[in-house]
Specification:
Length: 211
């Protein structure tokens, strides 16, 4: 939920990967503020923003004196820093291992493989590619979401936000196949009120920007 007196601030742009973090913020239930960047105007390359995120990308999360960038890292941070939402297994819980694996499988395996697919790049040797190969990535994701309802079973976690966003984006743009397991998982995600709020809020921002 957004709030003027929020301690959390999301540096955001529509459309961008920052949508995943906004969804995660809605899942936490914590108040947050939005600092909207105009990427076409180059706000992300201005010195004041580069001081927060030298990569010049969104999202960036500011939590008091803590600055966190990279989607999966932000989602991991929020789940641990604001545990009342139950979005991560506690440290010491054996499920923490699989949780962290899925949390980082998105940016380290799924996204590179999907980019190879989208750019029609020739596959590099499996022994040198950190993500293996596209077909294996798809099969691993298919098996993970087929068990359901969530990656860790009954508990929805930040890993579902990251992997869920990856699958939603990948199937929307033809970088992942519309297989039944992905479709069913996507429908379960879309039934979540937090995701519905994020989609509605970002749609409103996009309409205002083009209004």
């Amino acid at each position: 939920m957004t709030g003027a007196t929020a301690k959390l601030t999301l540096c955001h742009a529509v459309p961008s990967r920052a949508a995943t973090v906004r969804w995660m913020l809605e899942e936490t239930g914590e108040p947050y503020a939005i600092k909207l960047l105009d990427l076409k105007a180059g706000d992300q390359r201005k010195p004041e923003y580069l001081a927060l995120n030298p990569m010049g990308k969104v999202p960036t999360l500011v939590d008091g004196d803590v600055v966190v960038s990279e989607v999966a890292a932000i989602c991991c941070y929020l789940a641990d820093a604001y545990p009342k939402a139950g979005l991560a297994p506690a440290i010491g819980d054996k499920r923490r291992g699989p949780y962290l694996k899925w949390l980082f499988f998105g940016p380290s395996c799924a996204e590179p493989a999907m980019t190879d697919k989208a750019m029609k790049r020739e596959a590099v040797p499996r022994s040198t590619a950190g993500w293996g190969d596209y077909d294996t990535v798809v099969e691993v994701l298919r098996g993970a979401v087929a068990k359901g309802p969530w990656l860790l079973g009954e508990q929805f976690t930040a890993a579902d936000v990251v992997i869920g966003s990856t699958i939603r984006f990948g199937t929307a743009f033809g970088m992942l196949p519309e297989i039944p397991e992905f479709v069913a998982y996507r429908e379960r995600l879309l039934a979540r009120p937090a995701l519905q709020r994020q989609l509605a809020q970002d749609k409103e921002l996009a309409e205002r920007a083009h209004g």
